[in-house]
Design brief:
416 residues; single chain
Amino acid sequence: MMDQPGSQDGVSELRSAIAHAGLSEPLKKRAQAILEQIERPVRLALFGLPGSGKSQILNFLAGADVLPADLPLPTLQLSYGDDALADCTLPDGTVQSLPMDDMQAISALKPAFIDARMPLPALKKISILEVRAGGSPTEQKRAMGWASKRSDVALWCTRGSFGRDEQSLWAQMPVNLQDHAFLIMTHADMPSVEEAYPNRAEQAMRTLQDHFRKVLPIGTQKAIAARNADGSVDKDALRSSGGMTLISSILRTVETGKQGARDQADVFLRQIDFTPQDIAPPSAPPAPEPPKGEAVDETIEQAPSTGLGAASREACEQAVAQLTAEGTMMADALDSAGLDDAEVVDICVDTVIWLADFLAESGEPGDQAMSKLRATAVDAADLVQLIQLETSETVASDSVSIMVQVKQEMQQTLAA
């Protein structure tokens, strides 16, 4: 996975290339398309037969009770907006806007399509398209074909059987979307999803591995109930419901897609050999130093090797330097009021996910000390993403603490 600061330099250069007078219009359009892919929220689509639990999954992912149960509505697109409004396209083509808190009035209009916006934090990363159609295969195929062109990641919701009718419909989806798709086994509202569905999920995964990235059972009601009224999250309940795995899987797919777009930007800039004069060359990375308030471990440089192979040690040192640089940047920005709590949490989430992916791809595969650090990083990535769901006053400090703890464990491994 590419280093995040370098990726941001690539985005800045891409903007400069678009503004450059010497770039041809076709190349500018290509650059604009790549930039849009980097900056826009990932487009997530919910597919499935009527009654498969799509609306409740939408509510869970959005982090709010957006859609009431059993309300007749058409296909709905939900994205971020400062005002909670729904633009309802009526059968005659006219559009009428209504507030999102009056879903009964929206349903009464009998719209053909709803473009909804709400100021929900989750919608800064994803937009959600719930595809609704009648029960006939013809209606389903038409709706799915339309939605597949407007989706980056697909979730097929099923009550747990994924029968022949569903398999037939899904087989007609574009292969590139199947490569970024999850089968969501909803209605698994049992004491523990791990106990209720392991055999069925494993069997489905073996059968459908060519058509989905993962098969994910979830007790939707239990997952929704894990969000407390004060904005905190019952992490144990969310984990046992399967909600934690779903969120982590989606966020990892989102980050992979964004990184792919950033890689496209780097390739594009090399192809056109574009070096804008107004962009300073990248400076050398800052010398590793701990975030403010964290003690310096003077023994690290003198410590002998302790089971970490050369490649693993080099990877750990690089990761510690990156974590240190991120911590220093955040500390400086907080001192100057340059970051708010939400931005701090976003940086921590991105950094820890980067760390988990980086360690997974680095070092010797059989290195036991490195394997332990990889597991720690994966656990930290899951935990910091859960913390991101909370709205309590401590989310920023909790996220920073996780990042610091991971860094300290890596330092201790290097110094042991």
